[in-house]
Amino acid sequence: MPWPSRKRDKGAVADKKEPDAKIAKTEETQKNEEEEKSTKPPAGSSKSGWKNWKKAKESDAGGEESKQTYCHWLLKSEPESRLEKGVDMKFSIEDLKAQPNQTTFWEGVRNYQARNFLRAMKLGQQAFFYHSNCKEPGVVGIVKIVKEAYPDHTQFDQKDPHYDSTSRKENPKWSMVDVQFVRMTKRFIPLSEIKAHHLAHKADGGPLKNMMLFTRQRLSIQPLTQEEFDFVLSLEEEKPH
């Protein structure tokens, strides 16, 4: 899985080309590089884009605004190599596509809020696959939940970077889900572009005004409202700034 921890079923530590090598995303060690790299949004305002999107959505929904409930997700994963306790945390969307049935477990989450989000995920819900902690972070594809939360086996593996000596098998602290590749987004949607819309929406009340990617940016598992998901997905149809 991604943010979570990379899989080490075979005990392979340095084999970065092994398809099973998943990256584990640890909330404690994740850097705030994305915010640092996106302090200056691209030139131009996204207000008109938001208004056009809102008009189209209201037309489709008969003018009714969607309820602010979380039904989609954003999952962060590291596409570039980073060693943690001798294990490569790299797991890109290409690594996911290389897995059997393009499916993997999303293990290694060691933040309670992120874990609770994992436990709230429902079968069939979709999530953005987000490349994080890299030169240019952003949304690269879509995955879906194919197995709801169950105990994360890495918490009991003493050789795994995400081993937790305080967790007990009779009452596991940490959970994971299984995700499956759905498709690549039509284009890479960079963090800087999403942030430009977020800043504009904070001023004019657009759907990204409270997006957790900017209010709780260190979380590797983040919920999205239907409006947030739809708006970010609509960006794949636009030309890059």
3D structure, described in words:
By secondary structure, this protein is of the alpha+beta class. It has a domain of 162 residues: ph1033 like fold, CATH 3.10.590. Helix content is 25%, strand content 24%. It contains seven helices and eight strands; from the N terminus they run ααβββαβαβββααβα. It has a six-stranded mixed sheet. The protein has a two-stranded antiparallel ribbon with strand order 2-3. The longest helix has 14 residues. The N terminus is likely disordered. Keywords: Nucleus, Phosphoprotein. It is found in: Nucleus. This is Thymocyte nuclear protein 1. Specifically binds 5-hydroxymethylcytosine (5hmC), suggesting that it acts as a specific reader of 5hmC. It comes from Nothocercus julius.
**Fraction of residues in β-strands:** 15-25%
Q: What is the second-level CATH architecture of the domain at 70-231? A: Roll
Main sheet: which strands, in order across? 4-7-6-5-1-8
Give a short account of the largest sheet: 6 strands, mixed
Mean pLDDT: 82
What does the overall shape look like?
A: globular
Radius of gyration: 18 Å
Number of discrete helical segments = 7
Q: Classify the fold: give the CATH topology of the domain at 70-231.
A: ph1033 like fold
Helix content: 10-25%
Count of beta strands: 8
Instruction: Identify low-pLDDT runs.
Output: 2-45, 61-67
